[in-house]
Amino acid sequence: MSSANSPTTFNPQPLGWWERNMVPKIIGCCCAQPQIMKARSRVVPQADGDVLELGCGGGINLGFYDRAKVKHLTGLDPSPGLLEQTRAMMQQTGMAADIHAGIGEAMPFGDQSFDTILVTFTLCSVHDPKQVMAEMRRVLRPGGKILFLEHGAAPDVGVARAQRWIEPLWKRIGGNCHLTRPITGGYEQAGFKIAHADKGYMPKTPRPFAWVEWGEARI
Ligand SMILES: C[S@@+](CC[C@H](N)C(=O)[O-])C[C@H]1O[C@@H](n2cnc3c(N)ncnc32)[C@H](O)[C@@H]1O
Fold first, then answer.
1. Residue ranges making up the domain that contains 140
2. What is the DSSP letter of 121?
3. pLDDT tens digits along 48-76
4. Probe target for ligand 1 pocket from 125, 151, 209, with the most ligand atoms within 8 Å of CB
5. Is there a domain that residue 123 lies in?
6. What is the pTM for the complete model shown?
7. Which of 39, 85, 116, 141 has the most CB atoms in a 10 Å sphere around its CB?
8. Any idea what the CATH number is for the domain that residue 205 is in?
C-alpha cells in the first residue's frame, strides 16, 4: 500500500513488565489532567476529512472530535496496552475508528491518504521524530494539515536545564517520553510551513513538564 521507499514492517519488541503494566497507567493519569483536556478541546475538533491520529494510544482524544467534520478516523500506535484502552474508549464514546498497531516511523498507509494528521503528546515518545515527520509528509494529501499539541523544550534557561537533568530518568519510566524536543521548531526544521501556532506553560503543572505548543503545520 505504501510507496516503494517506505518501510511498513512493524515487528513489536517484547515489552517488559514496566512497559506493559505501568506505562499505560502513567500515561492515562498524566495525559488526562484537566488543563490537558482543555488544550485538547481547542485542537482536536479542528480535524476534518480522512483523519489519522498518530499515537492514538489511550483514546483520550476520541471524545473531542467534531463528528460532523470527520469522514473517517484511522489510529496508529505501537502499544498493545494503550491500544486496548483506545478500543475501550471507542466503546465508551461511540466514536468509530480503524485502529492499527504500528509506528510512525513506518506507517502502513499509502501515499497521500489523509486530510488531517492529529498528533498530541506523541512526538515526545517516538524513536526518530525526523523519520516520523518524513512519513507524515508522505501520507498527507496536498492541502492537508497536521494538527499538533505537544509538550517539549522550554524557552527559559533554568527550566531547560531542569528538563535536561530529568529527561534521562523520565524517559526510562515514562515510555520514552523526552522533555527536550523542539515542537513548532521541529516542524519548521523538517520543512513544514506553520499556518498558526501558540505556546505557553500549562497551569498547575511542574515547569519541566508544562511547556506546550499547539498549532497547524502544512506541507
Ligand atoms: C504520552 S502518550 C500520548 C497518547 C495520546 N497521543 C494522547 O494524546 O493522550 C505517547 C503515545 O505515543 C505512542 N508512541 C510511542 N512511540 C511511537 C511511535 N514510534 N510511533 C507512534 N506512536 C508512538 C505511545 O504508544 C503512546 O500512545
1. 17-218
2. S
3. 999 999 999 999 999 999 999 999 999 99
4. 125
5. yes
6. 0.93
7. 116
8. 3.40.50.150
